[in-house]
Design goal:
The protein is mainly alpha-helical. The protein is built from 4 helices and no strands. The longest helix has 33 residues.
Length: 81
């Protein structure tokens, strides 16, 4: 889903990498002038992202809590920065 949105943005000259997922990036993505079907697809993908994001954040937090309990995971998280 994010890859598809990123492709839509890049195909219109909007290359923001991770910044595309910021509030400003989202505004720019929503403002792109697209054809009818691409515009419909963008809207569907954004709605899906909005529905899934809270659950994904909850899962990410649960994984982080479990990872912090393991020394090997803590070391890997240090490397990631």
């Amino acid at each position: 889903m994010r890859n598809q949105l990123h492709f839509l943005a890049m195909s219109q000259g909007l290359c923001r990498k991770a910044k595309l997922w910021s509030a400003k990036g989202r505004t720019e993505l929503e403002a792109l002038s697209l054809g009818h079907w691409a515009s419909e697809r963008r809207q569907e993908l954004l709605e899906l992202l909005d529905r899934l994001a809270p659950g994904l954040e909850e899962l990410n937090e649960a994984v982080r809590v479990q990872a912090e309990q393991r020394a090997d995971c803590r070391e890997l998280m240090k490397l990631k920065g």
